[in-house]
Amino acid sequence: MIDQVDTRENYKRNRFAVAPMIDWTDRHCRTFHRQFTRHALLYTEMVVADAAIHGNRERILGFAEAEHPVALQLGGSDPIKLAEAARIGEAMGYQEINLNVGCPSDRVQSGTFGACLMKTPYIVASSVEAMKQAVAIPVTVKCRIGVDDQDPETALDQLASGVFDAGADALWVHARKAWLKGLSPKENRDIPPLDYARVYRLKQQNPSQFIGINGGIQTLDEALDHLNHVDGVMLGRAIYNNPMLLLDVDRSIYGSESAAPSIDAIIEHMCDYADAHIARGGRLSHIARHLVGLFHGAAGARRWRQILSTEANQTDATSAVIRLAYAAIETVSTEEAA
């Protein structure tokens, strides 16, 4: 097994990540996002440990080599099952295993995992220890600052202390509490107030550990400001709703001097990718739904969204729909220029 110090040291390159989002960050979404950035860390949707162990692995866990660097997020509370799921993820080629200790949905709570694990930090620590013993790749945790009536000062310290003692390579913190009763998952992303300062204090208390921050971050300028206080920044909905934000990640976050890809090239790649998916029995809608936000705020964006949201849902739709939608964008741009 790789030395624990080595995995923690290697993890420091992950300064920017696209958050794991249930029903959103599937393999098609990740393929799309990877066209914009070579370096950002991408995450799967949360996969329950039992599904990873007993389900159709190619359908549930499959991904393309071109998606790297990509991490697998697991949900669960049984250290033995999580260790087995982690082994499976490592064998399939994932570069990181992340444990979900932040999702507040009723479905996740009923399985006694996700954000409710903030109440049992010893289970989280045991799970991390079991996964670290099972795999040689980094094992990380994504959590909240607390749940319900917990004091975030105490709750987050206890969780962080336990997982780092167990060997965790990183702790990504969504800088809000989660309310397990009374708020929906959507409301839990917006209503509890953000407390970035709490995450900053955690980093100050753990200078040698990787601490990443998540929650409410909308721009790369905001991300760069957070990087003055923590090691990594994770954006979720902001990226999904406006993928163009990823175009400047490699330059502004990683210092890359390589030219950003052109939108023409990204569209062409996704058209080829869509047709290959359709040839294997898939549907254009599986892919097109992730492209809807591409021209967020741009002239012609409404027409782009309309075409993708309607015509891509036809059973016989092909990449011609994406090309048609892109032509609408180009037509508006030409008319405005004239």
From TrEMBL:
InterPro entries: Aldolase_TIM, DUS-like_FMN-bd, DUS_fam, DusA, tRNA_hU_synthase_CS. Coiled coil: none annotated. It comes from the Bacteria. It is an enzyme of class 1 (oxidoreductase). Its cofactor is FMN. The keyword Kinase does not apply. Its EC number is 1.3.1.91. The keyword RNA-binding applies. The record marks 100, 186, 189, 302, 305 as: Interacts with tRNA. Keywords: Flavoprotein, FMN, NADP, Nucleotide-binding, Oxidoreductase, RNA-binding, tRNA processing, tRNA-binding. NCBIfam families: PRK11815.1 (NF008774), yjbN (TIGR00742). Catalyzes the synthesis of 5,6-dihydrouridine (D), a modified base found in the D-loop of most tRNAs, via the reduction of the C5-C6 double bond in target uridines. Specifically modifies U20 and U20a in tRNAs. This is tRNA-dihydrouridine(20/20a) synthase.
